[in-house]
Amino acid sequence: MSNNFSDLLTKTVFHESLVLRIVEVSIIVILIVLCVVGNCLLFYIIVTTSPRWWTTPANFFNVNLAFTDLMVGIVVLPFMAMSISWQSWLLSDILCQSTAFATILLMASSTLTLSVISLDRYFCICLPLRYQSVVTTERVASVVAVLWLTSFLLASIPLFGWGRYTFRPQSIPICSVLLEGQQRHVILLWSFMIILPVTVMIYSYMQILKVARKQANQIGCVENHFNSRMMTGTNETIGTSQNGTVSFGNNDSKHFVSRSLKSLKIVSIIIGTFFLCWGPYIGFNFWCLDNAKPIPYLGDLLTTFLAFTNSSVNPYLIIMFNRDFKIAFRNIFKSRQQE
């Protein structure tokens, strides 16, 4: 009887672990498909809508983000799926370290690029008259180069003895940087990968919000001024239209406010998505840093999946909140339907 119960328990545990493994790998496959399809689609839309995309700062940054996230889907996630399905690392140790190195490199590049995109929106809205002279093609290329150099240096730190890349069977069975007992490394890593990008994004958000509110208040004051003159019968022809509404030549200002609010929406979506994907991962890793208890597998799994989800949703957010990209996306499906 005891042996039968033990066999039944073993089979049940094996069945549950097998089901969990299938679910885990299935989620990763979905993330890979979304990541590869979305970023390839973003590449295609940018190239077709702007053949000289490298001359437009926003497109330059979008292409860099798409390339980074595409590499996550091609290089990082497939090896993650293999190690989880095997529950071990059957390939060479050098390949394990290379995979972990690529993970830190690409994750750092992705988060830093998101902050640079927010900063580009800040310059475009808050310094519109100086934007063309400040944000030049050469400077954009230099920023991207510094961004990749910073990511490379962050990923190289464990190669010189400060932390190490290894297979982690005690938590999610993947190759990653060993963070336990490396408080300084963790602080440095998260400072550049998380704190710096978040600070830049929040600063850009607050400045764009400030400019949008100021411009909207100015337009409201001018409209009230002219409307009050019209109500009193004052012969005021400046800025009045045939139907009695006030235009006072502020179409450019209204367009500017509309563009400011649109940029504000884009930056807020970027910040919100970033916090949603990376917030649990950061909090969980800091909790595990000084916690002597074993790392909860489910918590580690879910927060890691959320962090990688950021690379899968970025291209769809960019397409969704860019009018030209959205039109190009619709045209692709219309042409497919006509064929």
TrEMBL record:
Subcellular location(s) of the protein: Cell membrane
Lineage: superkingdom: Eukaryota
GO CC, any one term: plasma membrane
Keyword RNA-binding annotated: no
Record flagged with keyword Ion transport: no
Annotated ranges, domain G-protein coupled receptors family 1 profile: 38-318
GO molecular function: G protein-coupled receptor activity
Membrane-crossing segments per the record: 20-47, 59-80, 100-119, 140-161, 187-206, 263-281, 301-321
Membrane topology according to the record: Multi-pass membrane protein
Alphabetized UniProt keyword annotations: Cell membrane, G-protein coupled receptor, Membrane, Receptor, Transducer, Transmembrane, Transmembrane helix
InterPro entries: GPCR_Rhodpsn, GPCR_Rhodpsn_7TM
Family in the record: Belongs to the G-protein coupled receptor 1 family.
The protein's name in its UniProt record: Octopamine receptor-like
